[in-house]
């Protein structure tokens, strides 16, 4: 069955590359769709939702692309410093983090900054939204891991982790999260908010991606991609993906297998077919494309990827145990920051629009 998807990669050369992928049972071909020199400095982050692709840069801007209309959609100008991380929550919200220590929540409807939180004393290095949409995690150069209640925009609790972590990610089921510092993946249990295991990569880790609730793809400062099984707390599969270090990994699911996408300093984007079965075998190469650029980040745009989100009010949670209980409720919540602004600001007025068309 053919899939509609696009590979979007950012580069040191300030250019965003888009490749439309033609899927075939045996071989996938990536054809150049667009190149866009939207930024005036190297591109540091990319993310995709059902409709939009966004890129962040050292030039302090977030550029928007409407993939359905195939047009640029303007820029967001709230951060003062490099944009370090971008993540969509469903189709309704985008979260951004930067070297200014801010965590911003944007509505994708009018591209307003609904909430701007001073999240860390140093840089925000990574953020991740829980699958429920109720909370987000962030890590920064102040050596803290912070949990944010996205309903009221306040800090739920802070954990000192004694190191500068540069990646944080929730598992797809929201039962655990991982924090990456240098070459180590620390696996945290949601209920205790404590490290249950640590897996060490041979090189500094540059990118990770959960393939499912138990398998984590890990890329680092070498040409090898390794897959960690969370239950066994060890790498169960590895393969040489590129000729030089792998900068970014992403993935998505087809009917009966997983597609792992890798981007490297060598300019190549590669797509790998991986069957997620008990005994993992190294993936087979589906297709590749040479951008001839030094790639820095990657996102896969797939129009059918947005989760269906139901609404439910969220209670206050101030400890990891309360948080676990709250998040164990099955229903999902849509982040509704428009209402929170009125409750949370001392002067009840809406913030002015920071970016958009």
Features:
357 residues; mainly beta; five-stranded antiparallel beta sheet; four-stranded antiparallel beta sheet; 2 helices; globular; signal transduction inhibitor; PAK1 interacting protein 1; WD40_rpt; nucleus; repeat
Number of strands: 29
Termini separation comes to 36 Å
Largest sheet: 5 strands, antiparallel
Class from helix and strand fractions: mainly beta
* Order of strands across the main sheet: 4-5-6-7-29
Q: So how many helices? A: 2
WD repeats: 76-116, 117-158
InterPro entries: PAK1-Kinase_Regulator, WD40/YVTN_repeat-like_dom_sf, WD40_repeat_CS, WD40_repeat_dom_sf, WD40_rpt
Protein name: PAK1 interacting protein 1
Keywords: Nucleus, Repeat, Ribosome biogenesis, Signal transduction inhibitor, WD repeat
What does the model show?
This protein has 357 residues and is mainly beta. The protein contains 2 helices and 29 strands. The protein has helices at residues 320-327, 337-344, and strands spanning 5-11, 16-22, 29-36, 43-48, 52-57, 62-66, 71-76, 83-89, 93-98, 102-107, 113-118, 124-129, 135-140, 144-149, 154-160, 167-170, 176-181, 184-189, 195-200, 205-210, 215-220, 224-229, 234-240, 246-253, 258-264, 268-274, 284-290, 295-301, 355-356. The strands form 7 sheets. The protein has a 5-stranded antiparallel beta sheet with strand order 4-5-6-7-29, with no helix packed on it. Keywords: Nucleus, Repeat, Ribosome biogenesis, Signal transduction inhibitor, WD repeat. InterPro entries: PAK1-Kinase_Regulator, WD40/YVTN_repeat-like_dom_sf, WD40_repeat_CS, WD40_repeat_dom_sf, WD40_rpt.
């Amino acid at each position: 069955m053919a899939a509609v998807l696009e590979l979007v990669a950012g580069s040191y050369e300030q250019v965003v590359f888009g490749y439309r992928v033609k899927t075939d049972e045996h071989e996938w071909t990536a054809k150049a769709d667009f190149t866009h020199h939207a930024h005036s400095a190297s591109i540091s982050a990319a993310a995709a939702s059902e409709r939009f692709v966004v890129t962040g840069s050292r030039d302090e801007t977030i550029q928007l692309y409407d993939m359905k209309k195939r047009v640029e959609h303007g820029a967001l100008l709230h951060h003062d410093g490099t944009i370090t991380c971008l993540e969509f929550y469903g189709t309704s919200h985008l979260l951004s983090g930067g070297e200014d220590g801010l965590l911003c929540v944007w509505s994708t409807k009018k591209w307003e900054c609904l909430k701007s939180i001073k999240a860390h004393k140093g840089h925000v290095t990574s953020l991740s939204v829980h699958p429920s949409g109720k909370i987000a995690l962030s890590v920064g150069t102040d050596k803290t891991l912070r949990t944010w209640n996205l309903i009221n925009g306040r800090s739920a609790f802070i954990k000192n982790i004694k190191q500068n972590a540069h990646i944080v990610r929730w598992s797809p089921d929201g039962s655990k999260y991982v924090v990456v510092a240098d070459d180590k993946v620390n696996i945290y249990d949601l209920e205790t908010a404590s490290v249950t295991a640590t897996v060490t990569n041979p090189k500094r880790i540059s990118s990770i991606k959960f393939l499912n609730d138990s398998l984590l793809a890990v890329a680092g400062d070498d040409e090898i991609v390794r897959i960690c099984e969370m239950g066994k707390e060890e790498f169960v599969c590895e393969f040489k993906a590129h000729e030089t270090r792998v900068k970014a990994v992403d993935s998505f699911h087809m009917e009966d297998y997983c597609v792992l996408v890798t981007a490297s300093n060598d300019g190549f984007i590669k797509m790998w077919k991986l069957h997620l079965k008990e005994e993992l075998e190294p993936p087979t190469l589906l297709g590749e494309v040479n951008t001839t650029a030094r790639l820095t980040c990657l996102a896969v745009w797939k129009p059918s990827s947005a989760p269906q989100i139901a609404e439910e009010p969220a209670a206050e949670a101030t400890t990891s145990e309360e948080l676990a209980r709250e998040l164990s409720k099955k229903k999902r919540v849509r982040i509704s920051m428009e209402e929170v602004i009125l409750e949370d600001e001392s002067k009840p007025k809406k913030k002015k629009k920071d970016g958009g068309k």
